[in-house]
């Protein structure tokens, strides 16, 4: 069998299995596999996880899930009120007061990143995982967007992530291990209409 035929066959079989499994799984195959056969969430017990954009949505959900599994949490966003609410949910989920550090800030102010990073290390003595989740999307007819709007979007979705990740990578290299996570978007894979700037920065 020719190599290309074989590759084509594998792709067809993959999608056939995918379609057949759709009625019984509620996510893609990779996630389903990880859920059932991947590493267990208990492995997060005692790990220090810093989640940016933790005051709502995906970041909030992640914080509560991590709390259920015993992680120590650093929660960042601008809204102190919402961070306090998320902290309350984490405490209900099993965290203790000592397990949670609220680090409110505007993440686009990269001049504060070193100081914030130092606070995390001073408080918990280590960082295991940085989750770059703070971000937003934007809808507009691309050619009408003011440059300032593009700049704001890139400062949040790109440059703040690069700045904080760079500090984390230097620290992870020093201690010999660590993980970087970034919440991305399908817009980075398939261009979405009226999301021109977001398609670039995803
Ligand atoms: N939900 C989706 O369908 C989807 C799809 C593709 C990609 N994403 C990406 O997934 C991530 C989370 O999205 P989400 O749906 O959970 O949105 P969300 O509920 O609006 O959460 C965004 C988070 O980012 C924080 N944030 C925004 N600007 C910030 C700033 N300047 N400094 C610090 N924190 C800031 C917000 O908190 P404050 O306002 O309190 O600062 C909030 O906690 C984003 O990066 C988003 O682009 C989401």
TrEMBL record:
Q: What is this protein called?
A: Dehydrogenase/reductase SDR family member 7
Q: Which PANTHER family match?
A: DEHYDROGENASE/REDUCTASE SDR FAMILY MEMBER 7-RELATED, DEHYDROGENASE_REDUCTASE SDR FAMILY MEMBER 7
State the UniProt keywords alphabetically.
Membrane, Transmembrane, Transmembrane helix
Which parts of the chain span the membrane according to its record? 6-25
Q: Which organism is it from?
A: Apolygus lucorum (Small green plant bug)
Q: Which superkingdom, per the lineage? A: Eukaryota
């Amino acid at each position: 069998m020719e190599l290309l035929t074989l590759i084509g066959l594998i792709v067809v079989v993959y999608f056939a299995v995918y379609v057949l499994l759709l009625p019984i799984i509620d996510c893609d195959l990779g996630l389903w596999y990880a859920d059932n056969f991947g590493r267990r969430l208990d492995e997060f017990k005692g790990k220090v996880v810093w989640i940016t954009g933790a005051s709502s949505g995906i970041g909030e959900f992640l914080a509560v899930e991590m709390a259920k599994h015993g992680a120590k949490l650093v929660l960042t966003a601008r809204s102190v009120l919402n961070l306090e609410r998320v902290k309350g949910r984490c405490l209900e989920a099993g965290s203790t007061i000592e397990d949670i550090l609220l680090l409110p800030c505007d993440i686009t102010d990269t001049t504060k990143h070193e100081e914030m990073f130092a606070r995390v290390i001073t408080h918990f003595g280590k960082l295991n995982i940085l989750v770059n989740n703070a971000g937003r999307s934007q809808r507009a007819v691309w050619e009408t967007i003011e440059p300032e709007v593009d700049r704001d979007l890139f400062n949040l979705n790109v440059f703040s992530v690069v700045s904080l990740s760079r500090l984390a990578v230097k620290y992870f290299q020093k201690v010999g291990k660590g993980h970087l996570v970034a919440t991305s978007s399908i817009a980075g894979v398939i261009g979405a209409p009226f999301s021109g700037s977001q398609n670039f920065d995803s």
